[in-house]
């Protein structure tokens, strides 16, 4: 099983233990690192992948599970890869705003080491608290290494 190595910072407290993480943290991990079904205009090799339930119309329009980060698995790390990774992560986490769990979110993608991409998500809540999740091994997770 592939380990998800995350540095979690919640209100200034740092942790790396996802097993003891709160439900928001677990929901973000699921949203980012499960495969959302590819869109009709996505360039893919083979199947559209993703959760089978996305093939049927959900009760809420555009209520999808997961992210399209998996589409980057065969990409080279170029500036356009960082842009797409950020767009896919924002798309995957948009439900947090739609469901009034977060007031806004920020996503940063950056190079990690010589051949990796790190992903940092900040979820801002209406009560003034925020949750920062940083995935230094996001590229390994995306590529299934």
Describe the structure.
By secondary structure, this protein is α+β, with helices and mostly antiparallel strands. The chain has one domain (21-143). The protein has helices spanning 23-33, 79-98, 138-143, and strands at residues 6-10, 13-15, 104-111, 117-124, 130-135. A hairpin with a 5-residue loop joins β3 and β4. The longest helix is centred in the middle third of the chain and has 20 residues, at 79-98. The termini are close together. 23% of the residues are buried. The model has no long low-confidence stretch (mean pLDDT 83).
Concise summary:
The protein is an alpha+beta fold and 145 residues long. 26% of the residues lie in helices and 21% in strands. The protein has 3 helices and 5 strands.
Secondary structure: elements and pairs:
Elements: E1 6-10, E2 13-15, H1 23-33, H2 79-98, E3 104-111, E4 117-124, E5 130-135, H3 138-143
Antiparallel strand pairs: 1-2, 1-5, 3-4, 4-5
Q: Give the biggest sheet.
A: 5 strands, antiparallel
Content of β-strand: 15-25%
Number of helices: 3
Stretches where pLDDT falls below 50 for ≥5 residues?
Answer: none
Number of strands: 5
Give the overall shape, derived from the CA principal axes.
Answer: globular
Give the structural class. Answer: alpha+beta
Mean pLDDT: 83
Strand order of the largest sheet: 2-1-5-4-3
């Amino acid at each position: 099983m592939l380990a998800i190595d995350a540095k979690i910072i919640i209100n200034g407290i740092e942790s790396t233990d996802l097993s003891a993480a709160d439900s928001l943290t677990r929901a973000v991990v699921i949203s980012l690192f499960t495969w959302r079904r590819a869109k009709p205009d996505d360039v893919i090799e083979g199947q559209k992948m993703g959760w089978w339930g996305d093939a049927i119309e959900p009760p809420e329009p555009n209520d999808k599970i997961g992210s399209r980060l998996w589409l980057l698995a065969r990409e080279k790390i170029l500036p356009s890869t960082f842009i797409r990774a950020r767009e896919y992560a924002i798309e995957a986490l948009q439900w947090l705003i739609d469901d009034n769990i977060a007031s806004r979110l920020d996503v940063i993608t950056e190079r990690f080491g010589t051949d990796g991409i790190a992903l940092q998500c900040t979820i801002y809540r209406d009560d003034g608290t925020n949750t920062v999740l940083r995935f230094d091994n996001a590229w390994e997770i995306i590529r299934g290494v």
